[in-house]
Design a protein that fits this description.
Elements: E1 5-9, E2 18-19, E3 28-34, H1 58-68, E4 73-78, H2 86-90, E5 94-98, H3 103-110, E6 118-119, H4 128-133, E7 152-154, E8 157-158
Parallel strand pairs: 1-2, 1-3, 3-4, 4-5
Antiparallel strand pairs: 6-7, 7-8
Length: 166
Amino acid sequence: MSTERLFVEGIEDTNGFESVPDPADADAILVRLETLFEKGRGTIIGEYFHGGTLVFPPQTIKRLAAYAAQAPLYMSVFLERPAIIGPPVDLGATVIGEFGASDGVVLDAFRGRLSLSGRLPFDIPSSMEAAEASREDVPFDTAAPGFHTGFGLTRGKRTADPGSLV
């Protein structure tokens, strides 16, 4: 991502980029999202272990589609749980899954200052229905996952399935 003007959502530290308030004025758009969860779903310790949907709501996908129509879209998704990221990938977004990286690290990775490497520790389901049909106590039990365990990059090279998750 080599740009001068960046529209950001969900990021506070623009790490040297000029931030613009209107996506129409941006050379690129960077969005950071967290995996969704539903309060009250799951166990009594739901404050610590989130449950519920893994699907981004239609209004989020609609907003991302509007962004993608205006400039290249880059996304960072905090994968506390295996979010269903197929819809953003289908929009042509460059998507990275991360596990708690700072804003600065995410921006440096997208601008090429840091080498991206990592592999998924779990399957990313292709749909909520597939996630619900899988057995939660059996690894690799998701039917037709969007991205398999182990998918990712090592030293800038893909290690598994084709796609935009790096």
